[in-house]
DNA sequence: CAACCGTGGTG
DNA sequence: TCACCAAGGTT
């Protein structure tokens, strides 16, 4: 274990670097803001942390502004219809986050007087808030001591200490080190500093060690094998699933329905399709018609790749769907359509050709 | 605890 | 093209 004096030196080097070169992000309190006595809005911080889970800053940023504009307080978000929340989340992915986001807003609003807890366990108990997010909120929103360990911190620390244990087994070890390193006097700035270090200097593929405030003591840097960390177990190949999507039109509208509340794309809208499985199992169309072949769309999910054959037909007057809605052709953005379904819908025959 | 859960960018 | 990855959580 590192000696206390060394820990102090590391803290100082990191915070000096952060004070000098730390990024400015919309949801982030800068060091000078804290010194001026400004405090963060826990709601805005929480919103950013949920959106940033497994999501890049450029992708999440416009969503964060949009949500705050629509729902400036946690009470506003809690009062919103869930379908509105799902619609605004569409395109961000991991839709359980949106369901949990709404559930969390309702819980905070109705049971906690609209205030986010400033302690670890109550935060952890809220839907969508796990170990990382609870600690991140403690640090960023309340400037309280925390052990903030995200993918950035894992990479920085496994490289720095050349931790041989493979992820995710190394997590407890990393959490302990992160907690010891964190600056008790500036928890909020420190947490953001070490994440910034991973995001901008100690990057996955081409770390800029020359610019790193920790290069002087980094074991991976000394050995020149920092790219071998963090150690990871090899992952399994992604299987391919096939299906057929039934793109049904009726007078400038498209048939959509809501997916089941849980599981993949839970609660989002979809173009109805066959089951997704082995190739060659087309399934039955919803009605007999001269279905037009509109080609195949491909979409990569986390654990499988989907190939959907798109078939299109105009529904006759005699057919009505048992469920779902007729969405206006030119107002599809008003519905909670995930990206994969936008791909399907985009195969629609242009109105000029109908 | 391993599997499940999206999307878009990048080398 | 393709593998990898990004401020993880839930079951």
TrEMBL record:
Gene3D superfamilies: Helix-hairpin-Helix base-excision DNA repair enzymes (C-terminal), Hypothetical protein, domain 2, Nucleoside Triphosphate Pyrophosphohydrolase. GO terms for molecular function: 4 iron, 4 sulfur cluster binding; 8-oxo-7,8-dihydroguanine DNA N-glycosylase activity; adenine/guanine mispair binding; metal ion binding; oxidized purine DNA binding; purine-specific mismatch base pair DNA N-glycosylase activity. Belongs to the Nth/MutY family. Keywords: 4Fe-4S, DNA damage, DNA repair, Glycosidase, Hydrolase, Iron, Iron-sulfur, Metal-binding. This is Adenine DNA glycosylase. The keyword Flavoprotein does not apply. Its EC number is 3.2.2.31. InterPro entries: A/G_AdeGlyc_MutY, DNA_glycosylase, Endonuclease-III-like_CS2, Endonuclease3_FeS-loop_motif, HhH-GPD_domain, HhH_base_excis_C, HhH_motif, MIG/MutY. Pfam families: EndIII_4Fe-2S, HHH, HhH-GPD, NUDIX_4. Its cofactor is [4Fe-4S] cluster. The lineage of its organism: Bacteria, Pseudomonadati, Pseudomonadota, Alphaproteobacteria, Maricaulales. It catalyses: Hydrolyzes free adenine bases from 7,8-dihydro-8-oxoguanine:adenine mismatched double-stranded DNA, leaving an apurinic site. It is an enzyme of class 3 (hydrolase). PROSITE patterns: ENDONUCLEASE_III_2. Adenine glycosylase active on G-A mispairs. MutY also corrects error-prone DNA synthesis past GO lesions which are due to the oxidatively damaged form of guanine: 7,8-dihydro-8-oxoguanine (8-oxo-dGTP). Binds 1 [4Fe-4S] cluster. GO terms for biological process: base-excision repair; mismatch repair. Residues 51-200 form the HhH-GPD domain.
């Amino acid at each position: 274990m590192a000696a206390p004096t060394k820990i102090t030196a590391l803290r100082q080097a990191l915070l000096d670097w952060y004070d000098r070169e730390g990024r400015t992000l919309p949801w982030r309190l800068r060091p000078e803001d804290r010194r001026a006595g400004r405090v963060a809005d826990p709601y805005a911080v929480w919103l950013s942390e949920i959106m940033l889970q497994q999501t890049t800053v450029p992708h999440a940023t416009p969503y964060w502004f949009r949500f705050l504009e629509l729902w400036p307080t946690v009470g506003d978000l809690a009062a919103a219809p869930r379908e509105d929340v799902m619609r605004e989340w569409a395109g961000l992915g991991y839709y359980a986050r949106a369901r949990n986001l709404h559930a969390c807003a309702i819980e905070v609003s109705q049971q906690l007087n609209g205030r986010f807890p400033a302690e670890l366990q109550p935060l952890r108990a809220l839907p969508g808030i796990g170990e990382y997010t609870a600690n991140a909120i403690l640090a960023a929103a309340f400037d309280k001591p925390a052990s903030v360990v995200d993918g950035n911190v894992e990479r920085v620390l496994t490289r720095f200490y050349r931790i041989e244990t493979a992820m995710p087994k190394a997590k407890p070890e990393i959490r302990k080190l992160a907690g010891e390193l964190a600056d008790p006097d500036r928890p909020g700035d420190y947490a953001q500093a070490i994440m910034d270090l991973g995001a901008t200097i100690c990057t996955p593929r081409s770390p800029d060690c020359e610019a790193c405030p920790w290069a002087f003591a980094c074991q991976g840097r000394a050995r020149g094998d920092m790219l071998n960390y963090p150690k990871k177990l090899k992952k399994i190949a992604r299987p391919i699933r096939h299906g057929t999507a039934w793109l049904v039109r009726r007078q400038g509208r498209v048939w959509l329905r809501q997916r089941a509340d849980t599981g993949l794309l839970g609660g989002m809208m979809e173009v109805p399709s066959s089951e997704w499985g082995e190739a060659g199992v087309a399934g039955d169309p919803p009605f007999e018609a001269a279905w037009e072949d509109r080609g195949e769309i491909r979409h990569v999910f986390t654990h499988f790749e989907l190939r959907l054959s798109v078939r299109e037909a105009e529904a006759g007057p005699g057919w009505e769907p048992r469920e779902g809605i007729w969405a206006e052709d030119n107002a599809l953005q008003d519905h909670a359509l995930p990206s994969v379904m936008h791909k399907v819908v985009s195969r629609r025959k242009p109105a000029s050709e109908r």
